[in-house]
Amino acid sequence: MTEPTRRDGEGLASADADAARAEPAPGPRRLPATTDMSAAARDARRERLRADGYAIDHLCGDRPQPAPEALAGSIEGFVGFAQVPLGVAGPVRIRGERVQGDIMVPLATSEGTLVASSQHAFTVINRCGGAAAACTQALTTRAPCFAFADLAQAAAFARWVPTQLESMRTAAAGTSRYGRLQGLRSSVVGNTVYLVLEYVTGDAAGQNMVTLATQAVCELLLAGMPAQPTSWLVESAMSGDKRASSHAFLGARGRNASAEVVIPARTLGRYWRADAEGMVRCWDQATAGAAQMGAIGLQGNVANAIAALFVACGQDVACVSEAVTAITRFERLGNGDLYASVTLPNLIVGTVGGGTYLPTARECLAMLGCTGTGGASRLAEICAVVALAGELSIIGAMASGAFASAHASGGRKGRTASSTDTPTA
Q: Residue 147, Cα to own-chain centre: how many angstroms?
């Protein structure tokens, strides 16, 4: 991600001042400038967040770390914690199906310019009335396979297995309070049959949940199938787990979430020194480049935003490899405005289970309002808006020619302290 575009030495503050004179303020106050790295700015951010009702004691290091015993099931050979800086950008206005209002967004990263560029894009989104968002599907998959002596046995099994769906659902439900088998698909490859089992998992990401359910389903099938397989696997790698694949575009894996915004031509010019035609041209050239390298999905840097949000919120960071199977769109409207959207069909996110019990993750999820029933779909909508902000930021910087200079000024280390300096409070 990139820092806001600059021209002739102008910074974000002057661009914001120009826009503020011409357009109404977007409502809630922003935190101190993201680029202010002083202790006073840090303390002011903390004070503001606390005054607004956010609990951040663990994030600020004011509470003790979890006891080693509490980490059982999450880590082995425990010695301590890897520390990743965490910043807060926002608020960003979201008009979603499950999110309505102004959201502060915690981002854990060591990449300079990511938080600043997110803040810049959030400001633009706010001035456009907010971003619309929706989470449209939620299914987590496992893909067992069964190898038989010959093709005839495989074909017979493939014809038989759909008739067992109800009993398979019962077996799966017996392993979890929340996981439910929704459907199955099969494919025959010679003497081997691959199944794709689709589950809903409540507010959990559900990776372990669907594995246990699939084990129970397979054991049920083994007891009654027309012919016994010569071998079988509970996961054949066909589910798309922790790898980029086209599977999510054909159905659903995790949560499918989209976000969109329309940016007036005047706002584009003020904040990115670009117009809709230039943004679309830049994106068209980028997609042609992505096609040449065989990319799955067409997106600029979705992984940046999603990884930072995942680390902050206790998500399985390895699932970022799936989340990048995304589609970004830029379209010039007839009046010169820009339509931009991001669709993430492969978001493995949860607000219970996994690393969400860790104190800092709980504080970040609470900051996002992603606790309680429906929290995971709400988190998916927020992920889509944060990813959209990142896409706007990078294409805006590319279209205006400021991509390299923004990284040089905002992302290089050692501008205020040598790399060997010890950080101070």
A: 36
pLDDT of residue 421: 42
Asked whether 344 and 319 are in contact (CB, 8 A), the reply is no
Q: Which two tokens stand for residue 346?
A: 């492969």
Distances (CA, A) of 169 to 18, 43, 190, 412: 60, 53, 27, 54
Angle at 274 between CA 271 and CA 278, to 5 degrees: 145
Pairing of the two strands 327-332 and 192-200:
unpaired
Active-site residue flag, 407 = yes
Helical residues (DSSP H) of 23-129, grouped into ranges: 39-51, 114-127
The C-alpha angle 164, 170, 175, rounded to 5 degrees, equals 130
Considering only CA atoms, which of 342, 344, 335 is closest in space to residue 268? 335
Alpha carbon distance 94, 381 (integer Å): 9
Contact 4, 271 (CB under 8 A): yes
- What beta strand segments (E) does 171-272 contain? 180-189, 192-200, 231-233, 254-263
Structure tokens at 44: 């002011």
Residue 88 host element (H or E): strand 86-96
What is the Cα–Cα distance from 138 to 265, expressed in whole angstroms?
35
Active-site entry in 10, 16, 235, 316: 316
Catalytic residue (one of 102, 111, 235, 331): 111
Report pTM.
0.87
Helix (H/G/I), strand (E/B), else coil: 40? helix
Q: What is the pLDDT of residues 353-403, one digit of tens each?
A: 999 999 999 999 999 999 888 899 999 999 999 999 999 999 999 888 755
Q: Find out whether 168 and 218 touch, Cβ atoms under 8 Å.
A: no
Tell me, yes or no, if 111 is annotated catalytic.
yes
Q: Which residues lie closer than 8 Å to 17 by C-beta, 6 or more apart?
A: none
Helix axes 12-22, 265-272, angle to 10 degrees: 150
pLDDT digits (tens, 9 = 90+) for 343-355: 999 999 999 999 9
Q: Average pLDDT, whole number, for the chain?
A: 88
